[in-house]
Amino acid sequence: MSDGPTVLLIKRKYPPNEGRWAIPGGLVELGERVQDAAVREVKEETNLDVVLVKLLDVSTDIHLDERSRTKYHYVLVDYLARRVEGRIKLNAESSDFGWFTGEQVRQLDMSQGTRDVLALHFSDRTGRLRKRLR
Predict the structure, then answer these.
(1) How confident is the model at residue 129 (pLDDT cuts 50, 70, 90)?
(2) Which residues of 60-87 are buried (b: 16+ CB within 10 A; e: fewer)?
């Protein structure tokens, strides 16, 4: 593992973003707080228990179909989290995982939205990677 900051990413099995690297996460359940959903989704997708450290970004991700109609519409709320305990065990939604440095992230296939929030993460922690990730 690298001496610098790393981020846990998973490779999505299903659309949208099938086969691309992503931040663990998912849908908020009815009546659930966004923060609780973030912790729950990380646990469901990776088996890790985490605590949220800070809010990184809030963004919108819209996917259109072949007729330019909205197929998927997500509001993404990304947090920096710290692992408390657990060993990684992926659920059926992911095909792979990895811990990546900012330099390694540059080489991965991911959505622009994921790339943007990772740029925020690494620029906060290193002060120099933000421009190079874009």
Answers:
(1) very low
(2) eeeeeeeeeeeeeeeebbbbbbeeeeee
